[in-house]
Design brief:
The chain is α/β, with parallel strands linked by helices and about 400 residues long. The chain folds into three domains: about 70 residues, DNA polymerase, domain 1; about 180 residues, 3-Layer(aba) Sandwich (Rossmann fold); about 70 residues, Winged helix-like DNA-binding domain superfamily/Winged helix DNA-binding domain (Arc Repressor Mutant, subunit A, Orthogonal Bundle). The protein has 19 helices and twelve strands. Strand 11 and strand 12 form a beta hairpin. Helix 9 packs across helix 10. About 45% of the residues are buried.
Length: about 400
């Protein structure tokens, strides 16, 4: 039976979305395998190249792959298995098959967070990634990354230092150590968590595999943290996938004079959540996982331990109490001025977003689809609307109208 799964999962010229449609149409991979040309011609959207790929019925390659998996201790997870993560199943292009080394965590019951960035990173980026890996794990999060050198490896090492499970998603076969310098890290991740890949065992780390890999990192996660990324970085592809999938995007502020932070700093300008510690990320999901997420103290030195603080002079006993209310505050009868007190105060994009959310809360990707506003512009507009109280961001990449937005409908 698994031979049919591998055969369908690795058909060339057919994207993952169409493979899922074929699976649903014919009921099983074996049903797709046995489908006649006339039946395949009735499948809407299946191209001639796709039908030609499905006409190849040779299973020998996949029988050999199964034997290799058995020898190397690689487990195969299919789209219809109970353990297949629901978050990943719900993206537009879910992989039909995942190859797994190690122990697959129960993703659906864990606050998984993707932490990614560039290979050619700064010392600051490396330190920040390691710290975030430790702190996210300490707060109850599951770190998911790409096991690449640089930011990815540092984040995973940080999580492993906490004794936490981690998940590495590869752009090569699950049995291929790429880059070779991370061999010890691969072994540790396999022992303490798992290594995942949608590519057959033995597949090399071709550069075109990594964008496909990135959609799985974001698909498994509630949100992704971009630690350090230049323009054009693969980590920015992960951020784009996250937005399309309705995930949250976080970014670490970086030095504006260092080119490797240009892409991640741009994400902040476009509305990504700024991150200075692991709790900045995990706090967003406390209502979703109240029994899993906890605010844990950071092991950084406290100010009192590093240098003496200047003491405030003792208060005079006869000194008047400091007023709680400042003169500039409005009186209870006076409302604060709001520049968006009617629809005329909103931009065209703002009005489109308010109209879209009038029916109720929605994930960001649905708002993008419904309004046709590009993701970057939409995130920028959401920031403006959020500051004015027109919209409210919710955990899990969802948004709804705020009190001011309801007045503006």
């Amino acid at each position: 039976m698994l031979e049919y799964w591998l055969w369908l999962a690795h058909r060339p010229g057919i994207d993952e979305h169409m493979k899922v449609l074929l699976l649903q149409y014919f009921g099983s991979p074996q049903g797709v395998y046995q489908a006649q040309p006339g039946e395949l011609a009735e499948v809407s959207g299946l191209t001639g190249a796709g039908r030609k790929a499905l006409s190849d019925k040779n299973l020998s390659l996949y029988s050999a792959a199964l034997e290799r998996c058995r020898q190397d201790g690689i487990k195969i997870l299919t789209y219809l298995d109970e353990q297949y993560p629901r978050r990943l199943k719900n993206i537009y292009h879910p992989p039909l098959v995942l190859y797994c080394k190690g122990t697959l965590p129960p993703f659906d019951s864990l606050p998984a967070i993707g932490v990614v960035g560039t290979r050619r990173c700064s010392a600051y980026g490396l330190a920040a990634a390691g710290r975030l890996g430790r702190e996210i794990s300490r707060c109850g999060g599951l770190v998911v990354s790409g096991l690449a050198d640089g930011i990815d490896a540092s984040a995973m090492k940080g999580a492993l230092q906490e004794g936490a499970a981690t998940v590495g998603v590869l752009g090569c076969g699950a049995d291929v150590v790429y880059p070779a310098c991370n061999r010890a890290l691969f072994a540790q991740v396999e022992r303490c968590g798992c290594i995942l890949s949608e590519f057959m065992p033995g597949t090399a780390g071709f550069k075109w595999n990594f964008p496909k890999r990135n959609r799985i990192i974001s698909g498994l996660s509630l949100g992704v943290v971009i630690v350090e990324a230049p323009e054009g970085s693969g980590a920015l592809h992960t951020a784009r996938f996250a937005l399309e999938q309705g995930r949250d995007v976080f970014a670490v502020p970086g030095n504006i004079d260092i080119a490797t932070f240009a892409g991640s700093n741009r994400l902040l300008r476009e509305g990504a959540f700024p991150v200075t510690c692991g709790w900045d990320v995990m706090e967003e999901y406390t209502s979703l996982f109240p029994d899993k997420i906890r605010k844990a103290a950071s092991p950084v030195r406290k100010a009192a331990e590093s240098e003496p603080m200047e003491k405030s002079p003792p208060k005079r006993k006869d000194a008047p109490p400091v007023p709680v209310k400042k003169d500039i505050d409005n009186s209870p009868q006076e409302a604060y001025i709001d520049v968006t007190n009617n629809n005329e105060g909103l931009s065209d994009r703002g009005r489109a977003i308010v109209a879209c959310l009038a029916e109720g809360e929605k994930p960001v990707d649905q708002v993008i689809s419904a309004t046709g506003i590009p993701s970057g512009l939409l995130l920028r507009e959401l920031t403006v609307l959020e500051l004015s109280g027109t919209v409210v961001r919710l955990p899990g990449g969802r948004i709804r109208l705020g009190n001011q937005g309801r007045k503006n409908k």
